[in-house]
Amino acid sequence: MIPSVAPDLDLLDEFLTENRAPDCALTVQISNEHLAFAVMDLQDTRYLAAQVYRYPYHFSPDDFSIWLQETTSTGMASWHYSTVRVMAANLDYTLVPGPLFNPLRKEEYLRFNLSSQGDMLTLTDRLTGLDACTVYTLPLWLHVKLTEIFPGAPLHHTISCYLESVLNHYKFRTRHHSSFINLQPGFFDLIILNEQKITFCNSFSYKSPDDVLYYIMFILEQTQLLPDDLELLITGEMGRHAQVVEKLTSYLTYVDFLGRNESFRYSPVFDKIPGHYLYTLLSAAECEL
Question: Regarding the domain delimited by 170-272, which CATH topology (the fold level of the hierarchy) does it fall under?
Answer without folding.
Answer: Nucleotidyltransferase; domain 5 (3.30.420)
